[in-house]
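Predicting holo structure, heme C bound.
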Amino acid sequence: MRSRKWLGFLDLAPAALVVAGLGWVILSCADFHRGPAPIDGGGGQDAASTVVKDLMFEAQVYPVLLMRCADCHAVGGDAKTSRLVLTGNGRVDRAMVVALVTPGDPAGSELLIRAGGGDAHPGDIRLPPDSPEYATVSDWIAMLPTAP
Ligand code: HEC
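Done. Tokens:
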């Protein structure tokens, strides 16, 4: 009895293998599509360079803004209703600052135009274009990735 059952199973085995094989192929295709996406789409390099630029912003650019702009550009300051209201936390404020610059074009960035006294800035000249502080902010803008 037992041996017959085993033989019966063996008769069905090839069909089972075909089904299993098809299933494996389908799963493999699914894995093929699913696999690479997070690795490439996640942008390992982009993420890394963003971290570097964040560090540059937090360590070098943000302190300049706090020193030269926060008198007015902070809660309760003359520019409290402008788009530049510094909180004291560079990581939090970075997006707000990025929104005021044109990546790759420092001289065409509103942040630096205003900081240089342009566009009738009420704060007048806070970062003279020949100052090292202007250069720090300018270098940072120049290194920002141009695509969002
Ligand atoms: C003495 C006060 C004062 C200082 C200091 C000052 N600003 Fe301003 N700034 C203002 C005021 C008031 C406004 C809002 C009125 C306007 O947009 O013309 C303004 C507007 C701006 C704007 C336009 C924001 C918007 O909403 O469109 C930018 C950009 C800017 N300032 C950048 C800077 C930078 C960068 C610094 C520091 C390097 C700085 N400001 C320092 C007073 C100041």
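Residues 2-34 form the longest helix (33 residues).
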